[in-house]
Design goal:
The structure is a homodimer.
Chain A (H helix, E strand, L loop, with lengths): L31 H7 L7 H4 L2 E5 L9 H7 L9 E5 L12 E6 L7 H15 L4 E5 L3 H5 L3 E3 L2 H4 L21 H13 L4 E6 L1 H16 L5 E6 L17 H22 L3 E6 L6 H10 L3 E2 L2 H6 L4 H17 L5 E6 L2 H4 L1 H16 L14 H9 L2 H9 L14 H19 L8 E6 L1 H4 L5 H19 L5 E6 L9 E6 L4 E6 L2 E6 L9 H15 L21 H6 L5
Parallel strand pairs in A: 3-4, 3-6, 6-7, 7-12, 8-10, 8-11, 9-10
Antiparallel strand pairs in A: 1-2, 2-13, 4-5, 12-13, 14-15
Helix pairs in contact in A: 4-19, 9-10, 10-20, 12-17, 14-15
């Protein structure tokens, strides 16, 4: 009956740490739920619970331009996928003592700590006496050789916990020859057998470049990637999802569901909810599938249909007018963070503004506006005054207009308001409109991982350990068959080069893992598209409620994944 | 393993409803968590599970000015509290068939549906054949006689669910003679034996006026109040807490905890979190006790110490500077929604601005500013330009400055930024500062009620049923001993007049239930005050995680209540 929280004191490892930013969760006070999660026993795929061997598949190619990828990765191109399969006895030497490093790269995603736990436990279970180093603060930690040795005591309080604070993360990249050199020095200094890079598309591309570099220089250090991003845009057939997506979407969906019930109870607000996801709209789509909002904007659709801001506004206003006729003057609208980036005319306007602001005087009488093209001028005049002002005044250090600072949800509220006012005067709208804006972002990146993310990450880490144990490099940890119970999940690795294409930048080919965007002919979008008309006018709201860790609801997997796997219709 | 949600179809009651705004949750699709909650068996205090009688206590007085309260409530003043106690046999007639109305008044709070379920189940259990009417859209539903008959089938899908959408709510008041007349007509038309008003301080005051009015006119309709508000500012010895506070705080604390882990993982943001609660800062205080933020502003303390906006800013900046010296350039800061209202100098400035804007021309050169008093001018110049502009431009229909529209968290970020810049130039600050703003409000009002709120509300409703059954009026449903298991909770009613004082308005005495503010010598604030220095510089963050409905963590009760009951130290 008491809310008293237990004091977790981890005496042993206290002396090991330097900078306060990675001081560890020593003597942390944990909530009851946090505490209950620490000792949550994680299931493992049966293939890694029993003796296994690693089987190679056929040689791989690339996602595009295989010839260029082959040139960029002469040592790694064409590597086969690796798959763990049951075996009479373990085929890998258990007397090896490995030295492995691990690094977190980029934005937080729930489950990162479990990947590290998975690697650690693999090494403990299969290569007793191995050492795991955690590089601090992202790839910069590799270059500056800032690390801690991860011990059982140190890792313990982070098990099944959100955040990246065990070793923290960073956005630096290892890409110049000098930086590669620093990485080599660290690998040599620590005598590293392997390195696990936990990150998104960019980080995994760089992981592969590092693997290629080490291999090219005949260094023993192998590199394995792990798919991390709440945005859900790093995925392919072999890597069905990136970790963190499941948890983040469920946290946002909890909030959206609550706001929906509020909207229906109050009956007088339209809630405009902007959701994280600058490049792809997977989060927005998944949240829509979980909650059934009245209006959902998917950036990829806006781009494919070459919609303008006016089109988007009109779509919203049309639905709002129809709902008003039905007596509903409330609703919930989901918008992806990156919406503006998907609208070509906005990009054009921004480019023109940057040009004008750099070279011309912006006069009070608005004569400067004559320098805009007709289309851009029309768009500019269509924007609410506050947004116009923001575009003109807020610039980054290079003097560029800051699109990222525009609060899309507030802008849309103003545009919808203006358009509704017009329709009211025309007599085609009879309701009343009041917008409320929300942005759900930071709340979802560091929540306690769901049972799915906790297990998935643990398996990813365990897989990474197995791949390094068997001497693999340049692979991304791959756990499959995710619609089945954890016991039946498949475990292996996929050649990072097989995920790659090239982009031409500054006259050179650069390898990239293309972001997986929402596919308009994919199952998740098609399901959404088949239902959205109903959702618009009827109120089909679903409130997913808070993430549960125990009971039937605790093992639900997100719709996107199940639909893509064909496990849901 | 599937996220598929079950389709709840409630065929029977479909025909009963008219307006789309209260169309009921018919054929609603429910999430797994929602579904699991519908059939959650609610415990009841043992006193109502067994035969009981109702015992009156000693006559009551008033919270202040008893003579005036006695004049305002000649028929009800001095009523004793009522307490249910075990009895050999039930003392109330079970052959009575009652006609009872229920109304939700004011803002949403998790658990409202359970109060209604509690009333309904009491009537079913103890006065078979009784009828429960739900007035639609708040007190206006009483005046306009808009209602539905609540049946078992209709109530079922709302059990343990958030929101007020079963009958919706409203903010109208029944206070003029004409309005009282309308209420009388409705009571007569429906032959009402009783009415339960579920609301906050104002609504319960009005409930008592209605009870007095009915009694004065010798009508049979009795009125019982129920304490509802997430703000937690309706409470006294006999009514230890208002429902919804527990759930709302836990939802906000989940988000705050997630943001904390993000802050620590990222290491570069100060998150300014504004929390609902315009009058009192209970929510902010409770969230602080649950999560241990670096800085928490309690409105009542700001008012008591007559702090200025500059004082508040300086306090924040001092902590931020000290943290920077320790290497921490991140943190989490909680701010109550009503902060600005607690600062006397801001009130003064607003008053002067309203005066000036009403009568003078605001010239571009700022000559109008000379009309401000010295103190107000100083404050105005201290405000960030965006806020100055907002104060000058955004007015309500009466031409008044709109304080409510000021996003306090954004204003404080700007003020802190400016002050830090100054200190940087003086050499007393060496860090880097980046603020992120959040407002947690609508997300918490309609969440699925916690086990505590679910049980508490059910007991409140059951108690209201018992009080009406025994012919009581002018009482507020009172459930006590809340630190003990539900079985041991006490059940009764407290004279609403005993909670009242008077305020002088327009030369007349008006009865009011004074809002319970955060008491600076109360246990919750004292606990907070004893720990906040530690929280400021060390990172003692606690992440409460999502509300759990099963397991040990599911029965935790909020700190404020336990501390006030002396059940936690």
């Amino acid at each position: 009956m008491s809310a008293a929280s237990f004091e977790y004191t981890n005496g042993g490892a206290a002396a090991a740490f330097g900078t306060p930013s990675v001081s560890g969760r020593l003597a942390s006070v944990y909530s009851q739920v946090q505490t209950s999660r620490i000792d949550h026993a994680l299931p493992l795929p049966s293939v890694v619970r029993n003796p296994f061997k690693i089987v190679d598949g056929p040689p791989s190619s690339a996602a595009g331009n295989p010839d260029e990828i082959a040139k960029l990765f002469p040592n790694l191109f064409g590597q086969p996928p690796a798959m763990l399969v049951p075996n009479g006895a373990d085929s890998l030497r258990s007397d090896l003592k490995l030295k492995i490093g691990v690094v977190l790269s980029g934005g937080q995603a729930p489950g990162g700590h479990n990947v590290i736990s998975g690697i650690f436990d693999y090494l403990q279970d299969r290569t007793k006496g191995s050492i795991l180093y955690g590089f601090k603060g992202g790839p910069a930690g590799i270059m500056k050789c800032k690390y801690i040795e991860l011990t059982s005591d140190y890792i313990y309080p982070y098990r099944n916990q959100g955040g990246f604070d065990m070793i923290c993360s960073g956005r630096d990249k290892i890409e110049t020859p000098e930086q590669f050199k620093q990485a080599e020095e660290t690998a040599a200094k620590l005598d590293l057998d392997g390195l696990v890079v936990i990150g998104g598309d960019d980080s995994n591309t760089n992981a592969c470049l590092l693997a290629e570099n080490f291999r090219g220089k005949k260094l023993k250090t192998r590199v394995i990637g792990c798919p991390k991003t709440i945005d859900g845009d790093l995925k392919c057939k072999e890597v069905p999802t990136s970790f963190g997506f499941d948890t983040a979407c469920k946290i946002y969906a909890e909030m959206i569901g609550n706001v929906m019930i509020d909207a229906r109870s109050t009956g007088k607000y339209y809630h405009f909810v902007r959701l994280m996801g600058r490049a792809a709209s997977h989060i927005t789509l998944e949240c829509a599938l979980q909650t059934h909002p009245n209006i959902t904007i998917i950036g990829e659709e806006v781009a494919a249909k070459k919609q303008t801001l006016k089109n988007v506004t009109d779509y919203m206003v049309d639905v709002i007018c129809k709902r008003a006729e039905l007596g509903y003057n409330y609703g919930v609208i989901l918008i992806p963070e990156g919406l503006i980036d998907f609208i070509p005319e906005v990009q054009q306007l921004i480019a023109e503004l940057n040009e004008i602001l750099a070279h011309d005087i912006v006069d009070e009488n608005g004569l400067w506006k004559k320098k805009l093209t007709e289309q851009s001028l029309k768009l500019f005049d269509f924007l609410p005054p506050a947004i116009q002002e923001q575009l003109m005044l807020e610039r980054d250090p290079h003097g560029n207009v800051q699109v990222a600072k525009i609060e899309t949800e507030k802008m849309l509220i103003q545009m919808v308001e203006t358009e509704l006012e017009k329709r009211k005067q025309e007599g085609s709208y009879i309701g009343h409109f009041k917008g409320q804006s929300h942005f759900f972002g930071y709340e979802g990146r560091c929540g306690l991982p769901t049972n799915f993310d906790a297990s998935y990450c643990y398996a990813l880490g365990y897989a990474a350990g197995a791949l390094l144990h068997s001497g693999k490099t340049g692979l991304i940890s791959s756990v499959g068959n995710l619609a089945a119970p954890v016991e039946e999940w498949t475990v292996g690795g996929t050649a990072l080069t097989s995920l790659m294409d090239v982009e031409r930048r500054h006259g050179k080919f650069k390898p990239v893992i293309k972001k997986a965007m929402v596919e308009l002919d994919g199952a998740p979008f098609k399901k959404f598209a088949s239902m959205r008309k109903d959702w618009a006018l009827k109120n089909c709201y679903i409130s997913p409620g808070p993430i549960q860790f125990v009971g039937a609801a605790s093992n639900a997997v997100n719709h996107t994944l199940l639909l893509e796997l064909g496990a849901q219709s």
